[in-house]
């Protein structure tokens, strides 16, 4: 009888390890049934199979949750236990509404089931589902808050998507972010940009910057939930004026360090960033997550690695209200970080032993 209990649990996407509570004294029975949903003159019959049966437990009928939800054209999103969920399985069910599906400008992705709530300080939390229709390679997602006239009143490109860093075509995942806006948003839109996405705030100070603007390149970190090494790179303008920069080209590299020699493992050139950088804002770079595999797809060896960016020595820009050209030098405090990668991390991220 245990297999019927686990069958119901698997119906919502949870692995068999989650059903350890099942015992020989806990019995469920097949319960052949015909279940039909009647809604606004429409009928939908649930299609059961030997893998997704109705069972009877303790004189109650149970239907696999995913099968139940998808018959109602709802989306079920399952997240494995993590520190952020206090070790609890997370199951979210979203009722589908085609009138509230928002595609991006290139229809590469679409978002729906958006929930927005004020969190104080002119900040609004935002969450929902994101579906990948085409490859996102080289792209970054930028979410805009809009007023009644469809004017952009807020922007954020720092979006957290549940699950592994690699987002495959056809996948639907839960996302969350926040947007700063002095006005209450009436609507939202999603735009895809090449390499760089805009985040706007009212005020911030970044201790990594020596000047009014520059590059913030933080230390990379192994994220076991994302199954990758994650790096963050922004170009920030912390002045009270818009600036206009000449084309800025950056290359991101990962090298294996062997004594005094380096072996290139990964290299990625970002699209050029240029023109207007609004005041009190930054452009977030789309840095590919690294799955700890070499260029041939094989897991790398444990040891020392260097994660770096190659940037020019100076950058020319002008400020709002003047045509006078200015020059930024040493506009990035940090351009490289040393990372020690263990065999245990490699095994967990590449799913090898």
From TrEMBL:
Keywords: Signal. Residues 1-22 form the signal peptide. This is Copper amine oxidase-like N-terminal domain-containing protein.
